[in-house]
Specification:
- The complex is a heterodimer.
- Chain A is built from 17 helices and 20 strands.
- By secondary structure, chain A is α/β, with parallel strands linked by helices.
- In chain A, helix 2 crosses helix 3.
- In chain B, strands 2-1-5-3-4 form a five-stranded mixed sheet. Chain B has a two-stranded antiparallel sheet with strand order 6-7.
- In chain B, a hairpin with a 2-residue loop joins strand 3 and strand 4.
- Classes of the chains: A alpha/beta, B alpha+beta.
- At the A-B interface, helix 3, helix 4, helix 11, helix 14 and helix 16 of A face helix 1, helix 2 and helix 3 of B.
């Protein structure tokens, strides 16, 4: 029999970024016992990386803003594949969640009259992002952490869940290991909230940390839950490209919000060349108007650099492919040019974009107040994830909830910048609340001891194969190279077929991976288990991308470059079939209520 | 191709030693890249904490050639790689394995500091009004990424191991952020003097020097808190009298 420690909680939250912390706080407020599992130390989750801000229609800077405009912006950005109920709740509840953070100690930048300041961001009609310089994510996670540690939540730091446990159709627990000693842990829980973030480590160029190995996606999939929209991955248009070791690190959209422009090697501001029809009416058609917009002129329309991320990323790829790229395979992002407009531009840039100034100075030896930056797209976010009920965030498996990046629906085919931090707190709260309600209405289920023994045995197999076998990193690198090349920003059927073949080969290699050393804090061992999640979810991405024969949002097919109206009526759902093979179905999008249709129409 | 040698401390709570690894280095690499390369190619089980690799999460703290640094923000062209580069864990904290230390004391210490409690919202819309000038000094403290390098370098903790008596620079910054928050209603001054041992700090400013976020820990956080302790606990008249004694 396997040796493990047992912990019992009413609600178990897996993941301790913004969504997980918010869910744990809410569940605890609901009067149930809560366990919170974090893969790293508390407060280090990927939420700290979020820069630009939190989208909430507070209307502090432009009083024309309200939840309806935010809702319409979110749906337009998501190309109407969004779960409209989530988009509605998100727009309605984000302002209250933002104020709640302030009541827990967050210190947002202020307007001259002392309210929360808001800034412009791509795809948002009005200045809407509450922010703290360019470290809004850090402010959010620290606020939730410092509040959360006083709520009686049991925190299990540096602990990774490898499998969910079920009793019939219901989820009843989770099994994993703690990193420090490598001991197994069994968590019994009446309800489980997944808040594990995304899948960025499936790609070579990514802004995501090592933790982002699709754990929650794979846990849900293995437990029989439906995933949806897995073809939609956001490639952030501006990641660093030079030097090689920093490739993929994010350059905030705020650079463009402050007036940064994109240029090709010929010095042409190429974003003016291709403005999509549905954004024409709100986009500036000359440089002068764009500058007036970023300096706060309410009558001006936003510059084309602030179009949605999917579009900007593709325009950059087009320039690079046409041979008009920068020396290291990107294009130029220039904020230094504003010295033509402002007398004290260098000081202004340092004050407005301090973290970007330091990031380039320290990592690339480049002064952004003097020279343009070289940037290119980087894998940033997955819109797809666990299919959930819009109100409760419960998945298709009873007792299993999901919130934040691991859940699908809010963002549809493309996420707007700023809508992620608000997503975390709006739906983190909802998931925690409904998980607590579920836990109160249900008893602890029965954990199957044999199943636990099997998982424990499986988890230790890499040690049996030992250091003589192929190591996990080589397989992970091969996967990342392949996904980057074949299932990246621009996709074709032939390439994705090749990727599916490649995935079969990598899966065969993954089951033969071995590691040396012992179980105590052994990253090689951890990586060899994470591999299975990455492989399963990479398959879901490739299959979904193959099936969607159109281009929309984060999904671009070179062989089907246009949007297809019929394909806009369904989400693609991935689940584990009865035979254990991956199954793909089209799930029709439910009819939107008339009042929401009217809002979209009114904001066209 | 340039090669460089890194002497990485391998071991655990029972002991350990520096071990040599030679690996190729390229343009723009940071110390963490070298560690990852060694981990992938030569030592799969080499333990190291990291997350964001962009100086924002504060996970990869270590001592590079004896200097407390974030490995992800230390470029190889800032150090002399013609000689072996030593990479050791933060020495103030107990070892877990290799470059990973047990920093759990920090999380326990933080919990002992009285939490934020705002006054009742007093603006007409049910929130608060705060002026930017009033929150800027707090925002400086809130830049902290909890890398614990300030704790690592503080002699009260590093040399004297007074973990039960002194909360350390990180938590002085945390307490300062709370004390200077314009809408907070709690008073932490008595705790700072007694439970958190602010008097142990003798302003050597080592913490300020190593802070990767450039927080002016000593001048902006600790000294103002010391002044509050003095105001509350030491009679100013007697203090003045003492100043004039030989």
């Amino acid at each position: 029999m396997a040796d493990y420690q047992t912990h019992e909680h009413d609600v178990l939250v897996i993941g301790a970024g913004g969504a997980g912390l918010r869910a744990a706080i809410e569940a605890s407020a609901g009067g149930v016992s809560v366990g919170l599992v974090c893969k790293s130390l508390l407060g280090k989750a990927h939420t700290v990386m979020a820069e630009g801000g939190l989208a909430a229609a507070l209307a502090n800077v432009d009083d024309r803003d309200n939840w309806k405009v935010h809702f319409a912006d979110t749906m337009r950005g998501g190309q109407y594949l969004n779960n409209w109920r989530m988009a509605q709740l998100h727009a309605q509840e984000a302002p209250a969640r933002a104020h709640e953070l302030e009541g827990w100690g967050a210190m947002f930048d202020r307007t001259p009259d002392g309210r929360i300041l808001q800034r412009n961001f791509g795809g948002h009609r009005y200045p809407r992002l509450a922010h703290v310089g360019y470290r809004t994510g850090l402010e959010m996670i620290r606020t939730l952490q410092d509040h959360g540690i006083h709520q009686g939540i049991d925190v299990h730091m540096e602990c990774t869940v490898v499998r969910l446990l079920k009793d019939g159709d219901r989820v009843v627990g989770a099994f994993g290991y703690e990193r420090e000693r490598g001991r197994f842990k069994l968590f019994k829980a009446k309800a489980i909230v997944l808040a594990t973030g995304g899948i960025g480590r499936a790609y070579k160029i990514t802004s995501n940390s090592w933790e982002y190995t699709a754990d929650g996606h794979a846990l849900a999939y293995e437990a029989g839950a439906d995933l949806q929209d897995m073809e939609f991955i956001q490639f952030h248009p501006t990641g660093m490209v030079w030097p090689p070791s920093v490739r993929g690190i994010l350059v905030t959209e705020g650079v463009r919000g402050e007036g940064g422009i994109l240029k090709n090697s010929e010095g042409r501001r190429f974003m003016f060349d291709d403005i999509p029809d549905n954004y024409k009416s709100q986009t500036a058609d000359n440089a002068e108007e764009g500058w007036r917009y970023v300096t706060g002129d309410k009558a001006a329309r936003r510059p084309p650099e602030l179009l949605t991320r999917d579009h900007v990323a593709r325009c950059i790829m087009r320039e690079v492919k046409a041979g008009r790229g920068s020396p290291h395979g990107g294009v130029y992002l220039d904020i230094a040019w504003i010295k033509e407009k402002l007398p004290n531009a260098a000081e202004h840039i340092k004050k407005k974009l301090p973290s970007m100034y330091h990031q380039f100075k320290q990592l690339a030896d480049l002064d952004i107040t003097k020279e343009p930056m070289e940037i290119g797209p980087t894998t940033h976010y997955v819109m797809g994830g666990v299919r959930v009920d819009g109100d409760s965030q419960m998945s298709t498996v009873s007792g299993l909830f999901a919130a934040g990046e691991v859940a699908a629906g809010l963002h549809g085919a493309n996420r707007l910048g700023g809508n992620s931090l608000s997503d975390l707190i709006v739906f983190g709260k909802r998931a925690g609340e409904f998980a607590a309600t579920y836990a109160k209405a249900n008893r602890q289920g029965t954990v199957d001891g044999r199943q636990v023994d099997d998982i424990a045995k499986w988890a230790l197999e890499p040690f049996e194969r030992g250091a003589a076998a192929e190591g996990p990193y080589q397989v992970q690198y091969a996967l990342q190279d392949m996904m980057q090349e074949l299932v990246g920003i621009v996709r074709t059927e032939a390439e994705m077929q090749k990727a599916l073949d490649g995935l079969r080969e990598l899966k065969a290699r993954a089951v033969k991976v071995g590691v040396g050393g012992h179980r105590e804090y052994n990253p090689g061992w951890h990586s060899s288990l994470d591999l299975f999640n990455l492989l399963a979810i990479s398959e879901a991405v490739a299959r979904s991308a193959l099936e969607r024969r159109e281009s929309r949002g984060g999904h671009f097919r070179e062989d089907y470059p246009n949007k297809d109206a019929k394909a806009g009526t369904f989400n693609l759902v991935v689940r584990k079939g009865r035979d254990g093979e991956m199954e793909l179905v089209q799930a029709p999008i439910s009819e939107m209520p008339q009042e929401l249709k009217d809002i979209i129409e009114a904001n066209k | 191709m340039t090669m460089a040698t890194f002497q990485i401390w391998r071991g655990d709570a029972k002991g350990g030693a520096l071990k040599d690894y030679t690996t190729k280095v390229s343009d723009g690499m940071v110390v963490l890249d070298a560690v990852h390369q060694i981990q992938a190619e030569q030592a799969n089980d080499l333990a190291v904490r990291w997350n964001c690799k962009a100086g924002k999460c504060g996970s990869c703290s270590a001592e590079v050639n004896g200097h407390p640094r974030l490995m992800c923000m230390t470029r190889l062209n800032q150090i002399d790689i013609t000689k072996p580069v030593t990479i050791e864990p933060m020495r103030t904290f107990p070892s877990i394995k290799d470059l990973v230390t047990d920093v759990s004391w920090n999380f326990r210490a933080k919990k002992t500091i009285t939490r934020f409690k705002p006054r009742t919202p007093d603006a007409p819309d049910g929130t608060w009004r705060m002026q930017q000038v009033d929150i800027e000094r707090v925002q400086e403290f809130r830049k902290c990424i909890e890398c614990f390098l300030c704790q690592d370098v503080c002699h009260v903790l590093r040399d004297h191991q007074l973990f039960d008596e002194f909360a350390g620079p990180r938590h002085m910054v945390y307490a300062a952020a709370l004390e200077m928050n314009p809408i907070d209603t709690e008073d932490r001054v008595s705790d700072l003097k007694k439970a958190h041992g602010i008097g142990y700090c003798n302003i050597t400013k080592c913490c300020t020097k190593v802070c990767p976020e450039s927080i002016t820990i000593t001048d902006n956080a600790i000294i103002p808190l010391k002044e509050r302790v003095v105001d509350q606990f030491y009679d100013p008249v007697r203090k003045l009298f003492r100043m004039f004694q030989p």
